[in-house]
Amino acid sequence: MPVRKIPKTYRSISGRFPSAINGRCIGYESKLERDYYLRLEFDRTIASYEEQPIRLSGSVDGKEVSYTPDCLVIFLDGKPPRIVEVKSQEELDKKAEDLERRFSLARNHVEVQGGEFVIIKEKDIYDDALANYRLIYRFVKPPHNIETKRKLIIGILEHAGPLPLRDLLKSLGEDRIAQAHFTRAIWHMLYTREIEADLSKPISHSTILRISNGTENLS
């Protein structure tokens, strides 16, 4: 659990992110942190992650310094854990001297304990995939009658092969209301990776959907 409670603040966006990976809400102190956590939810190499995981303290350049990183990421494949700081480039530049002292504590910690320390900035978070993740993540929980819809979707893709979203929906029903119900199931199946698409580009009716081969990492 986090080593400190994330306070509510009017100076930045803070709140709770509902994490499917962790099975609980994760606190965040900025929009950047929230959107970084969303990206983690689509990285199939990750076992879990935790906000405000440890408090480090020590002397750096003759000054006593304390530091609590934003996040600890644990991987499924035995890869060493990752300590993460999420900061805008503007803040990194503005507070460079003070932040570098704190970051040195994290680098010393991972050198002794193992793992890595990573600074995540805007360029590491924002791209076309993130907009797709926002859409798909709304349907993490399976929609009504998912088993029946899943069988129909998989059956069509097995028979016809990869299809544009437009054609898949037409095969599932001519009625727009029916298609809307199947769309919810498609978004859910994209999250569970039963089906896959190129999420590096904005999703449209031309997006090609296929049965997942189980190897693609969405992050």
UniProtKB/TrEMBL annotation:
InterPro entries on file: TnsA_C, TnsA_N, tRNA_endonuc-like_dom_sf
Top-level taxon: Bacteria
Domain TnsA endonuclease N-terminal: 43-122
An annotated Gene Ontology molecular function: nucleic acid binding
Stretches assigned to the TnsA endonuclease C-terminal domain: 124-199
Name of the featured protein: TnsA endonuclease N-terminal domain-containing protein
